[in-house]
Amino acid sequence: MHDRSAGFVLIELVTTLILVGVIGAFASLFLYSGINGYLASKRNSEAALKAQVALDRMSAELRHIESIQGAPVQTPPSITYRSRDFGAADRRISYDSGNQNIILKVNNSDFILLDNVESFTLIVDTDNNLDGSSDDSKEVSAIKIAFKIIGVGTLFNTRIYPRNFITKNW
Questions:
Q1: pTM flag (> 0.85)
Q2: Which of 8, 32, 75, 84 is an S-S bond match for 64, by CB 3.0 to 4.6 Å?
């Protein structure tokens, strides 16, 4: 006599393996999505922190400027200035589009403020007669800075209001 239950063992084993495979595939998909979400969040958080540090440094540099040396350049954006807080040396904030860096230049030494910058704008706003003088001169009212970091897509920007009256001489 043949045992009829012997065939069911093989079918049960194959069915169990298929179910374990399907459950494993879904579990790995959810795990993969979770890890990718975590890594993207970490990348964006690190980029935002680097951007905030760069914005803070540029704000500190430009808040106490005493004079702007020559006209600010729009392409690639740059500004050369002297700052009350950082000595008499000419300083320059510029964008190196080839290396995609925002650079602070002091005494012919370059310091990278931020790397992997997709785009950078620096605009100097001027208004008539902010200091109330009779010469009707234009003074710097604000300096606007904006940039995007590669892979993040968020526009980081700030508006800096100089603490000294800087007459537009360009």
A1: no
A2: 84
